[in-house]
Amino acid sequence: MYANWASDPEVTKFLTWPSHSSVDVTKSLLATWISRYEDGGYFNWVMEYKETGKVIGNISVIKLDERIDAADMGYCMSRAYWGQGLMPEALIAVMDYLFDVVGINRVAACHDANNPKSGRVMEKAGMKQEGILRDAGKNNLGICDKVWHSMIRSDRKCDL
Ligand SMILES: CC(C)(COP(=O)(O)OP(=O)(O)OC[C@H]1O[C@@H](n2cnc3c(N)ncnc32)[C@H](O)[C@@H]1OP(=O)(O)O)[C@@H](O)C(=O)NCCC(=O)NCCS
Asked: What pairing do the DSSP bridges indicate for beta strands 106-112 and 70-77?
């Protein structure tokens, strides 16, 4: 994780956390994540590249609202693997799991308006754009407009 994406400022440019300054930062974050698996409502996956077994990215529920069965997603991936449609593939798989296994009703995600390629991931995974919240977010580049997308259970074509 440290070598492949967490230490790369190009990956974290539009994210809310700074790139990791040492492998110890990554190790301690992973220890926190692992301890949180004990809570039933914690969902965080590493993406493994099938051919090589390398870990190349991460996708997780960054906020779960159990009151309305809603999950907000976050994701990031090693630059070497961008542009192959891998994150849309991962987001579709995770949304299927959240809708079908966990029983979530709404899956949403937002991106900095200046990071449209993340918006493409959301669109390619079948989410619909909801709107733009002006100056509503802050990431490593400063205050930004947040573009929200979502899929709700009733959007799914295969739902009976
Ligand atoms: C956003 C991100 C997850 C996209 O994942 P991905 O697997 O590359 O997604 P895709 O292959 O579907 O490409 C999505 C878009 O990225 C752009 N893109 C494709 N190849 C690219 C490359 N080599 N370099 C930069 N951008 C590229 C294209 O606009 C593409 O859209 P298109 O398919 O309509 O042409 C990845 O770029 C990333 O990890 N970025 C840094 C972290 C981040 O921004 N996370 C999201 C925060 S909201």
From this structure: parallel
74 neighbors 5 (Cβ within 8 angstroms): no
Q: Is 79 in the pocket of ligand 1 (CB under 6 A)?
A: no
CA of 117 from ligand 1 middle (Å) equals 5
Report, in this order, helix, strand and coil percent for the chain, each rounded to 5: 35, 35, 30
| pLDDT at residue 158, rounded to an integer | 57
Classify residue 6 as exposed, middle or buried by CB count within 10 Å of its CB (0-12, 13-18, 19+).
buried
Q: Which fold has domain 2-155?
A: Aminopeptidase (3.40.630)
> For 99-109, how does the pLDDT look when each residue is reduced to its tens digit (9 = 90+)?
999 999 999 99
Residues 28, 25, 71: CA angle, nearest 5 degrees: 70
Write out pLDDT tens, residues 130-145: 999 999 999 999 999 9
Query: Contact 147/109 with Cβ under 8 angstroms?
Result: no
Indicate the pTM of the whole model.
0.96
Q: How far is the CA of 83 from the centre of ligand 1 (A)?
A: 6
